[in-house]
Design a protein that fits this description.
This protein has about 475 residues and is mostly helical. Among the domains are: about 80 residues, no CATH class; about 60 residues, no CATH class; about 90 residues, no CATH class; about 80 residues, no CATH class. About 75% of the residues lie in helices and about 0% in strands. The longest helix has about 35 residues.
Length: about 475
């Protein structure tokens, strides 16, 4: 448990923990810091006996176990301190804890003060579960003081319980709905209409007429259903569902400033679903509707969705007008507002620009874009698998430039650098692509090299073309077929 906990920490959490651990000074080296540094450096190949021998003599096993428990407790305390103010919910929990602390100490004024603050926070986020705890604490506290009339809090708890029961009924409906959607796997293949399934589930499990139409239920259903359909890549059902839901929510004036983020998300999802379904003109129309909606409420969410707006334009124009896609990408790369919201956006845009130039066979320009994205300050923080795929895409670009020396040398570098990933079955395509590229360098005639052609066929059959494009960054299947003529 301790080692998994240590591995889960990001850089900011590690920095905060080190400050927390060093809040007290000591003349000797801190064993907890040494254990932490060792575990972080060597996970998952850490050897507990090795660090134990460094820290203690052979008869101090119990001391080592106490050290591990103390370090785990300190990590949990550090995380709690770091994030207690990160949301209204966390703050409310913290305030409830403080109120109970001061109640145990018999300080009525502070107990009441922190309960009031906790109630305010919980109301701001409509956390009825926390409000139930808070009102119960008020009622118990009223038995110890004359300054609190329990009757008002009893009424508040009754009203809150009604809302809480309604939420629990919504959760029950959602749980069954999610299960049924997952069970159906793919609506379009089974001729199963998702709208019918939604209505049937609500009718089966809702005991209250008003809950069926409550906006809270409908928005939560939207979030659950859209997420599942995205995970299943069922874009046809997603398009149908979003078109109907967006129309209903708009006609019934359900969208407000408080849920404006959901409206923008819905338009983004719909534009992308239409793109996946090859409806480029309609996708671009909804991209413009997204742009218009981004300006609503004085544009308070405008910058957050700029990346998705540009991305939708690029996706569609990549299929219909490559020059327009390149123009949009150049504009997006220079837009600092996007980078402020999504720090890695410039890397993504440069990568897409490289792919556009590659499709136009402008390999020199494609290579320049790859170099730019690798020189970006944020490149080092990218996921290792993503960096590996970018590196392989770069090899393909260099291969087209006949820079075979670079390709051969980098294949060796990448095999060492990403050896752990390449052993993983999930990265079979990347492992095979490196092997195929190396063999292609020395192949005298690719169209007659039976062994290599067989290997290429095995790779191209391992995944359908569209899925392969998403997985590979630069579609290995399409490129290999262009080289073999098959």
């Amino acid at each position: 448990m301790l080692y998994e906990l240590i591995n889960s920490l990001n850089k900011e959490e590690v920095r905060h923990l080190k400050i927390f651990l060093n809040r007290t000074t000591t003349k000797t080296a801190r064993k907890d810091v040494e254990l932490f540094d060792y575990a972080r450096k060597h996970y998952p190949k850490h050897q507990e006996n090795k660090i134990f021998d460094t820290l203690y003599d052979s008869e101090s096993k119990n001391a080592f176990y106490r050290l591990k428990n103390r370090l785990q407790d300190d990590i949990n305390k550090s995380i709690t301190l770091q994030y207690y103010h990160s949301s209204e919910f966390n703050q409310a929990l913290f305030l409830i804890t403080l109120s109970r602390h001061y109640q145990a100490k018999g300080n009525e004024k502070l107990t009441y003060n922190y309960l009031k603050k906790a109630e305010k926070r919980a109301l701001e986020v409509s956390s009825y579960e926390l409000l139930d705890i808070i009102y119960s604490d008020y009622i118990r506290f009223s038995q110890e003081t004359l300054s609190i009339n329990p009757e008002q809090y009893i009424e508040k708890r009754k009203d809150n319980r009604i809302r809480l029961n309604r939420l629990r009924e919504i959760d029950d409906i959602l749980a069954v709905l999610v299960y049924r959607i997952k069970l159906s796997q793919n609506f379009s293949q089974q001729n199963y209409q998702i709208i019918e399934l939604l209505q049937k589930t609500i009718d089966d499990f809702s005991q209250s007429v008003d809950i069926k139409e409550t906006p809270q239920l409908r928005f939560r259903i939207y979030h659950a259903v859209s997420r599942i359909l995205l995970q299943q890549h069922d874009y046809k059902s997603l398009e149908e569902y979003l078109l109907l839901t967006l129309k209903e929510f708009s006609e019934e004036n359900l969208f407000t400033k408080n849920n404006h983020d959901t409206k923008l998300q819905m338009l983004t999802y719909l534009s992308n679903a239409l793109f996946k379904n090859k409806k480029h003109k309609t996708s671009l129309e909804y991209a413009e509707k997204l742009k218009e909606a981004m300006s609503e409420f004085n544009g308070f969410l405008h910058d957050r969705y700029l990346f998705y707006y540009y991305n939708t334009l690029v996706n569609n124009y990549s299929e219909t007008d490559e020059d327009q896609a390149i123009s949009i990408l150049k504009e997006a790369i220079t837009n600092d507002k996007i980078t402020l919201v999504i720090p890695h956006s410039r890397i993504i845009f440069n990568l897409n620009l490289a792919l556009q130039y590659f499709d136009k066979k402008e390999y020199k320009l494609a290579n320049r874009c790859v170099i730019k994205l690798k020189l970006d300050d944020r490149y080092a923080s990218l996921d290792e698998a993503f960096k590996m795929k970018i590196a392989i895409a770069e090899l393909i670009v260099r291969f087209e430039q006949n820079d075979h020396d670079f390709v051969e040398y980098q294949i060796g570098v990448l095999r060492k650098q990403y050896s752990a990933l390449l052993r993983d079955v999930s990265y079979f395509r990347q492992r095979e692509m490196l092997d195929i590229l190396k063999k292609m360098i020395y192949s005298q005639n690719l169209t007659t090299d039976k062994g290599l052609l067989k290997q290429i066929k095995g790779l191209t059959l391992s995944m359908e073309t569209e899925e392969a494009g998403d997985s590979d960054i630069l579609n290995y299947n399409s490129w290999l077929k262009s080289k073999t003529g098959r």
